[in-house]
């Protein structure tokens, strides 16, 4: 599955997910059938909600339930929104994204023992040129001196 040219299996991406754990008991697990090994969600998994904690305009601004089976792809897609926002912000300010990394956190449900994606975090670094900085000006003039005549077109 591709999301805006990004394959969620290629994990590698800014701030993200605050995860609120649900609360459940062993009796809840027995009533849903999760304790005896069936495929149903236990009460804790049913009550688990995900919410974004950033100040960006992305999904999950209000707490929402995601099934444990879908949490991985949904959290990865959400974190990809943060990466996309970083590239947009960099382009608007004449900057360059130097690095972008995503970390997905997993957890184990205390009630049914299912491993699930508990949330994610995206860290990005954007570099902006500072033309007023005298060091930047010197660097540009050094680059110009180094590159002058470096490429000569010998075609007629």
TrEMBL record:
Residues 22-63, 124-156 are annotated as: Disordered. Residues 52-63 have a biased composition (Polar residues). It comes from the Bacteria. This is Uncharacterized protein. It comes from Roseburia amylophila.
């Amino acid at each position: 599955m591709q999301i805006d040219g990004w394959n969620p299996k290629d994990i590698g991406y800014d701030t993200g997910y605050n995860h609120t754990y649900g609360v459940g008991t062993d009796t809840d697990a027995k009533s849903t059938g999760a304790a005896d090994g069936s495929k149903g969600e236990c009460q804790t998994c049913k009550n688990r909600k995900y919410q974004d904690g950033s100040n960006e305009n992305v999904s999950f601004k209000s707490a929402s339930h995601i099934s444990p089976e879908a949490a991985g792809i949904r959290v990865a897609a959400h974190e990809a929104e943060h990466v996309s926002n970083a590239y947009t912000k960099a382009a608007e300010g004449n900057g360059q994204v130097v690095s972008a990394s995503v970390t997905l956190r997993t957890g184990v449900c205390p009630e049914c023992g299912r491993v699930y994606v508990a949330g994610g975090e995206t860290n990005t670094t954007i570099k902006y040129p500072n033309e007023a900085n005298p060091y930047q000006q010197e660097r540009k003039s050094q680059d110009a001196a180094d590159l002058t005549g470096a490429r000569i077109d010998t075609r007629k």
